[in-house]
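Researcher: I'd like a candidate sequence for this fold, 227 residues long. If you have to choose between options at a position, lean toward the conservative one.
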């Protein structure tokens, strides 16, 4: 005897059962019509939709409403990423090494060293045009100085991806504004201060933008990886 085919949950001969969302919508429509008829028969008019809408408005505008809390969290995250106003720091310490234009090592008060990749920017590789100039620019800003770091995430190389501050100066933003770095739009598309800083540096032909047709470091890495 041939074994019947396996029937998935919810399936019946000839197809699938009508989906639950359709049944739910049908039931809501039936209840709405019934409520309207009852109210019409009792008072001569239908007022319940307005009452429901007013109640929904009251719930949504409460300070403790979930969407308000979520919006507040997003605003705080935006301030944390853009550094305005300067947030509390996840790390503090002295910069003891500048590997290139966007990578440093921070030594904290306990003697632990943290490798940090600057968030939302990308500088030329050392073998690229302006690569060593970008590293020198970062060194002048932070080497052997006390800085604060706002850590955004940890990357695949276990580096902390962060925005650095020296006093109230956003180092990431300062590098882009001086023409030593690109706004890394692929990883940080919503960082508008960096976008504006890059646009201004391009317009004034500062730093790497003084050269003819500077190559983005991500394009440079892709090209050299294929060789």
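Model: Candidate sequence:
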């Amino acid at each position: 005897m041939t074994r019947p085919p396996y029937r998935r949950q919810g399936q019946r001969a000839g197809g699938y059962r009508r989906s639950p969302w359709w049944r739910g919508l049908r039931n809501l429509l039936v209840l709405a019509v019934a409520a309207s008829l009852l109210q019409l028969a009792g008072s001569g008019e239908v007022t319940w939709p307005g009452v429901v809408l007013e109640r929904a408005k009251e719930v949504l505008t409460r300070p403790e409403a979930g969407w308000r809390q979520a919006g507040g969290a997003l605003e705080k995250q935006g301030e944390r990423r853009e550094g305005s106003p300067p947030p509390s720091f996840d790390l503090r310490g002295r910069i003891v090494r500048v590997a290139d234009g966007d990578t440093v090592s921070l030594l904290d008060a306990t003697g632990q060293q943290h490798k940090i990749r600057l968030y939302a920017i990308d500088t030329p590789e050392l073998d690229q045009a302006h690569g060593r100039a970008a590293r020198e620019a970062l060194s002048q800003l932070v080497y052997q100085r006390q800085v604060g770091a706002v850590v955004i995430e940890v990357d695949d190389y276990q580096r902390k991806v962060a925005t650095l501050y020296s006093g109230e100066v956003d180092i990431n933003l300062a590098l882009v504004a001086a023409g030593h770095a690109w706004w890394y739009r692929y990883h940080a598309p919503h960082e508008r201060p960096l976008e504006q800083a890059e646009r201004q540096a391009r317009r004034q032909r500062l730093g790497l933008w003084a050269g003819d047709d500077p190559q983005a470091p991500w394009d440079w890495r892709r090209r050299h990886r294929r060789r």
